[in-house]
């Protein structure tokens, strides 16, 4: 009896996993708007109602897909050590890996930001721990530029760099950069990182 | 006869203007996805076919709406002189006016970036001159930090600051900032601007 129950739970988990994989494929090839309960059930050859036995709603599936996208980014960033010669070099390498991942996974990446936000503002995101793990990597790289006790400023710098990188990558994905001239995404990243770090170093000296 | 022709052209231009205004209202209240030729014709009490006598397609109307959005932003930025005491103060004021405009016109603003890009990459945007006029304002503010001959670096700085501001405002509009903690859009703007400018000043000294 316990064994049978475990098997049923395993089946359920295996089917949920197949849902998330299939949803990821649909989003990756056609974008979030192509994902419907009917489409998903059709591809998996199950009844539409099965979806709602396994998930509260379609958003729950998208959250799971977004989780795997963020795990993929984390893996791409951690694939090899960051260059150790300077904070700038480490941040540029980190940004380039981020941009490379975003370009290779454009629809999956956009799905992260197309989902409705979680309620009125201050609740946690479903994938918040994954975002925070990514920020922690940036904060780790920035550590030599801050004194003990300056964690809030370091956290703000990490978020500014991420927001800048987010702006650059969204403009690059939307093909908004090239027509505006003078800069590729990589040029902008270099200017973003180098000026920010030079600014932090200057603050340290003054 | 010439008078009658002119009247007809004026009527045509007046009707086009009403189209753009009505499309702007629909986008502002319900977002770009709510804009359809049928809806627009219904609101204006004209036949759907009339739209295609006046415009090549719906995109042409959206481009015109986007043009008025960018004009509105330019007006909001130029409403009063920027503070003259420092480059930082001018850039922060400029950014705050930008953020204020974006927050007040969120759907119109998002429509600017939701439209498909113009072909394969390097063609001009329909509203490119308006974007360049906005960059010119930022470049003007940055001028004291660059030597003659450094126009390319100045242009790159203006675009990095804009990309950063774009990233911050898109995250703020999507309510992605608050749950990630530590920073409001205004805090991030201040860190973005101050570190960038400090970095440029440090480069100047070295």
Quick summary:
2 copies of one chain form a homodimer. Chain A is mainly alpha-helical and 206 residues long.
How would you describe this structure to a colleague?
Chains A, B: It comes from Rhodobium orientis. Chains A, B: GO terms for molecular function: DNA-binding transcription factor activity; transcription cis-regulatory region binding. Chains A, B: Keywords: DNA-binding, Transcription, Transcription regulation. Chains A, B: Residues 91-193 form the HTH-type transcriptional regulator MT1864/Rv1816-like C-terminal domain. Chains A, B: This is HTH-type transcriptional regulator MT1864/Rv1816-like C-terminal domain-containing protein. 2 copies of one chain form a homodimer. The longest helix of chain A is centred in the N-terminal third of the chain and has 29 residues, at 2-30. Chain A has 9 helices and no strands. Chain A is mainly alpha-helical and 206 residues long. In chain A, α1 crosses α2, α2 (37-44) crosses α3 and α4 (58-78) packs parallel to α7 (128-142). The model of chain A has no long low-confidence stretch (mean pLDDT 88). The first copy, chain A, is elongated, with a radius of gyration of 20 Å. Chain A has helices at residues 2-30, 37-44, 48-54, 58-78, 87-104, 106-114, 128-142, 151-173, 185-205. Chain A has 2 domains: 1-55, Arc Repressor Mutant, subunit A; 66-205, Tetracycline Repressor, domain 2, CATH 1.10.357. Helix content of chain A is 73%, strand content 0%. Chains A and B meet through α7, α8 and α9 of A and α7, α8 and α9 of B.
